[in-house]
Amino acid sequence: MKAVRGAAPASGASDMAHIELTFDDNRLAGALFGQYDENLALIEQKLGVDARARGNKVELRGDALASEQARRALDYLYGRLQAGHELQRSDVEGAIRMAVAQDDQLVLPTLESKGARMAMAGISTRKKTIHARTPTQDAYIRAMDRAELVFGIGPAGTGKTYLAVAHAAQLLERGQVERIILSRPAVEAGERLGFLPGDMKDKVDPYLRPLYDALYDMMPAEKVERAIAAQVIEIAPLAFMRGRTLANAAVILDEAQNTTTMQMKMFLTRLGENARMIVTGDPSQIDLPAGQKSGLVEALRVLDGVPSIVTCRFEAKDVVRHRLVQAIVEAYEADATRGRAALLTEQR
Asked: Do 95 and 113 contact (CB within 8 A), yes or no?
């Protein structure tokens, strides 16, 4: 890819820029721009620049900072296409977020200088490769690479559980761990296991379905099933962890906001030699009985500042599901903020 920067217009518009990009492969350039230039339209909408395609070239005009962010996003996405990946709308949105984050001085340690290609943290298995789509996801993936215990905290749709399972699958394929252990507390929206039909596995499986879904997305179905049968991959409710030492394993506790203080302490102290532990949860969605403290909230307070433990906090802006999910999360957060403000006013 070649980039040519035009001179800034005169008459007080020194913050405006004109950048022309040329992409060597016409076929990839077409995929980069999208059907009817829909990817360029998205960049225009999100960054407020004018992006016009001509053949294998695109002209970017607008605010100098936004134009540079658009250049970085397009450069990164073209690199993805060169590596054999297909682009989806979510990939384009993620590239835009990360390009903006560089200038917001967020976590992008692999960006060394202006004009450098963005290098987002990624996870690769034989079946699939995924890359961070937000700065927090980038920090989360890097944290899982280096820390023995990582907390991923935040609202639904931010990729906490999916990335954790993907990371565990990567460790297993590379031989860095001997097994994967996935667990959740069996508490969901006030329901209990007893009313469900079948044996214990039948009762527990619905609660663990998100973990299964992530596994099947990262590994071939037959490989997952063989690994489960051989107990190389173990999926079990939290109660089954008591009394065990989990060594040489990638261990994930999902929906951790629904643990009690004692359950969380029990789980965290299962960590054995050559093990990696990832705890995910959303403190805003606690389904424990009224008055019961969340083990996740307590653990975050008690373990704050302990070396080798990393906490990554996701926010509404990190939601990567349907665009409406982010709006829904933000609306609930705003309502909760208004409620707290009203309570403080009443107390005064």
From this structure: no
Positive/negative CA dihedral, 331, 46, 318, 191: positive
Q: What is d(CA 67, CA 93) in angstroms, rounded to the nearest whole number?
A: 16
Q: Is the domain of 60 the same as that of 176?
A: no
114-127, pLDDT tens digit by residue? 455 677 788 988 88
At residue 323, the pLDDT reads: 63
Q: What single DSSP character describes residue 292?
A: P
Is residue 214 included in any domain, yes or no? yes
Positive or negative: CA dihedral 298, 304, 308, 314: positive
- Model pTM? 0.72
Q: Spell out the alpha helix ranges (H) of the chain.
A: 26-33, 38-47, 64-82, 89-103, 135-146, 160-173, 200-218, 221-229, 261-268, 295-302, 323-347
Q: Which of 303, 300, 271, 302 is nearest to 286 (CA)?
A: 300
Show the domain range for 286.
129-314
The residue whose two tokens read 């965290």 is 268
Terminal-to-terminal C-alpha distance of the chain = 62
- Helix ranges restricted to H, 187-231: 200-218, 221-229
Same domain, 159 and 98: no
| In contact, 167 and 220? CB cutoff 8 Å | no
168 with 302: CB under 8 angstroms?
no
Is residue 91 over pLDDT 50? yes
Please name the helix (run of DSSP H) or strand (run of DSSP E) that holds residue 46, with its range, or none. helix 38-47
Does residue 208 lie in a domain region? Answer: yes
Q: Which residue in the block uniquely carries the two structure tokens 């490769």?
A: 129
Asked if residue 56 and residue 9 are part of one domain, the reply reads yes
Q: How many Cβ atoms are within 10 Å of 126's Cβ, its own excluded?
A: 12
Q: Are residues 310 and 265 in the same domain?
A: yes
Decide: 251 and 198 in contact? Cβ < 8 Å: no
